[in-house]
Structure formats: C-alpha cells, structure tokens
Design a protein that fits this description.
single chain; 225 residues; Glutaredoxin; Glutathione S-transferase Yfyf (Class Pi), Chain A, domain 2; 2 domains; two-stranded antiparallel ribbon
Length: 225
Amino acid sequence: MTFDLYIGDRTFSSWSLRGWLMMEKFNLPFRAHMVGLYAQTMADDMADLVPARLVPVMKMPDGTIVGESLAMAETLAEAHADRHMWPDDPAARATARWLCAEMASGFSALRGECAMQLQHVNTGFQPTEATRADLGRVETLWTHAARFQTDGPWLFGAYSLADVFYAPVCARIVGYDLPVSDTARAYCMTTISDPAFRAWRAEGLKVTYDPFPYDMGVPTGDWPV
C-alpha cells in the first residue's frame, strides 16, 4: 500500500515539507512527485489531481485524492494508528490538534513576510511588529504544549504531527534569524538538525535559481547545520 505525494520545490515549499515529513518521519510507504512551482508546469503536473490546486496533494492507494495538509494528517493518522502520529494522551492529542489548526489558519504576517527558504540565513533582516506578534504567539503555544511533554526533545516529547506542522516555522526563525527565546531557538535547532529535515534540505539545494526567488536585499550567512 503505497501513497503518492505531490510536492513543490523543496527549498521554498513549506506546505510540501509538512506533507513529506508526515510520510518520512512515520515510515509510511510513498512515492514523491515534483510539481513545478517555479518551472511554470504546475497546472500540467497537477492535471490528474482535480480538484486539488495546491501542493502537497496525496493520492491514496485506492486512487482517492486528498488535498490540504490537515486533511492529509488526519487521514494518515486514522489509517496508521500504530504509528502514533498524534500524542497518545487525550489532552495532549487535543492540544496538538489545536496547535496544528492554528498553524494552518494563522500567523499570516510571519508567513507572508518571511517566506520559507532553506538556502542561507538572512542576517540583517528586521521583522515588523506584526511578525514579532506572531512569533510571540508561537512561543505561547509551544510553552503551553510543554506542560504535556513527556521525555524527548519535541513539542510533546515524542515526535508528532505538531512537530511536522511547525517545522517550517523553525526554518523561518533560523532562515531570517528571528528574535525568539533561547528555549524556542533550541527547539528550532533540534528540528533543522533532524536527519529527515536535513535530507529534505539537501535535495532542495541540488536545484539552483537565477534569480533567487526570495532575495531580501540584506546580508546573508551560512545555514547553521
């Protein structure tokens, strides 16, 4: 039973990263297919996935098309209860779902101002007050999750879908050198140091872009991992 996952450019597609981590981190059998977000082939690449219009998109073994990352997450967790994709504790599980839902619908300033890019660190970037407010909210949610944390470095102890959904946030914090607490930065470093994340980034760096899509016009430094 193999899933087909359709993703965009790895260096930039934050939602594609989420879809891929759902599969990769929980050892689900899948084939990844690239959709040309920057090669102007997106419509053709997704022609057989109607009515989906954004990546990631999942095609299930029976041919069912599932779009939207939250729907994909719930579908996979339901079909693979043995993989413990959500925390086992009911209160922690409800909280993890809350965090994922807020991530999917919120943080518009952070997402709009700091498009995910995994190539370098924008060392001279200055976030707006709206983005700083989003970062404060992220830290509030991460601190709230910590009360349910068991042994382990992730939001709820063991890796869960909550960590999947916040991986691109960690990438933004690192990639724009955004102001967060030491605790939050340590979690971000755990995320980008994880072998799965590093493998995703390494594949993305095999593709070059001229011009680079998200040149912020500020000094840049090396990615820390």
